[in-house]
Amino acid sequence: HALLAEEDPKAVVGAASYLVQANPHLGRALRARYAKWEGKWSKSDGLVNASDEARAALAKHLPSARAFSATALEQLAACPYRFYLRTVLRLEPREAPEAIEALDPATRGRFIHEVQFRCLGRLRAGGMLPLTEEKLEAARAVLEDVIEAVEARFVEE
């Protein structure tokens, strides 16, 4: 027992002490196996030796200090870490935003007016006004570019 319970291989004496001194990986593996089969709880089992500051911070969350709902206790049994995140830290899963399927009238109006303003400005700057049959295809290309640009800006908002 002393061979496996001791963290420092040089402090161990005995017939098999050369094993842990010659190969640190073997010593670590043997100590882990010993900790697994030993009767008391250890850091290998998830036991945390909390500091005084941590104990003080967690004191208000002890079962004797506050009541927990049955659902919270079910969460504790299912996943202690999730219980900690939700009950102690009060974190909730982030909700995914829903995609907008229809624009409200005000947003739709802003979108249409901005498209008209930008499109007419580019057509005027390009000397394409007034529109004629010959300029129609180029004007459609300008309109599509403007719609894509305005849509990208509205998506960011």
Radius of gyration: 35 Å
Q: Please count the helical segments.
A: 8
- Average pLDDT rating: 85
- The arrangement of helices and strands along the chain is HHHHHHHH
Write down the overall geometry.
elongated
Integer count of domains: 3
The unreliable regions are none
Major sheet attributes: none
Instruction: Quickly give the structural class.
Output: mainly alpha
Beta-strand residue percentage: under 5%
Distance between the termini: 66 Å
Mind sketching the topology for me?
Layout: H1 2-5, H2 17-22, H3 24-37, H4 52-58, H5 70-78, H6 80-88, H7 105-125, H8 136-156
Helix pairs in contact: 5-6, 7-8
Entry keywords:
mainly alpha; 8 helices; 157 residues
Word description of this protein:
The mean pLDDT is about 85. It is elongated and about 100 Å long. The two termini are about 65 Å apart. The chain has helices spanning about 1-5, 15-20, 25-35, 50-60, 70-80, 80-90, 105-125, 135-155. The chain folds into 3 domains: about 1-45, no CATH class; about 50-95, no CATH class; about 105-155, no CATH class. The longest helix has 21 residues, at about 105-125. About 60% of the residues lie in helices and about 0% in strands. With about 160 residues, the protein is mostly helical. It is built from 8 helices and no strands.
In a few lines, what is going on in this structure?
The chain is mainly α.
